[in-house]
Request: fold
Amino acid sequence: MAALGGDGLRLLSVSRPERQPESAALGGPGPGLCCWVSVFSCLSLACSYVGSLYVWKSELPRDHPAVIKRRFTSVLVVSSLSPLCVLLWRELTGIQPGTSLLTLMGFRLEGIFPAALLPLLLTMILFLGPLMQLSMDCPCDLADGLKVVLAPRSWARCLTDMRWLRNQVIAPLTEELVFRACMLPMLAPCTGLGPAVFTCPLFFGVAHFHHIFEQLRFRQSSVGSIFLSAGRACRCGHSRPPRLQRSSSPTQRSSVPTLLSSSSEQDT
Reply:
């Protein structure tokens, strides 16, 4: 995604607009207003993403295939329109007027290899513990596990599973676009690159609070869900080590083990 190397790092680290005399400041907003515009834009994106999930009135639970398909449509529309919010923010604040929208959002070839490899390495380290525990608890050996994972029939089953598509494809892609690619360039000029990296997940975490009402509505949880959602709002990351969903019947063991990412599973 965003290549934070070379000029890309300097782009996101652009300093906030300097305070000018009142006569010169009439042509654009001051630093304080720029920060308010950035925060309001990020909050609007988060509310739009979550609000799009509830434009369809339904009495069915969120895991019903019909509900999942409708929410696919909603989040894809919001995600496709979210770059327009960044474009409007740039016009209002006057920050980086000569930079293309895609470059501002982090879509560029410069520094693509470290931007792709370093997060992959970090994710591998994060998941190393659960995967090692899984390999020790699983009765099958490594060769049998690889055969299951690489079997085309297993992937075909996953591609027809609406929950799998939601948890592993649609939710991660749309969340990264809205909550990282669009929000990070708007927050970095106001707070600096370092604080912006830790601020973006806060908007992502607050978006989880809507699950409280849905879980209580279908009596899926109790007050404990409130504390669980509050904990997600306070964390500074978009994922955590996964839980593995295993099949108990022999006929289902040929399917690919589904890694249930907590963030993706809880949003769409």
In short: Residues 7-11+30-267 form one domain. The chain is about 65% helix and 0% strand. The longest helix spans residues 65-93.
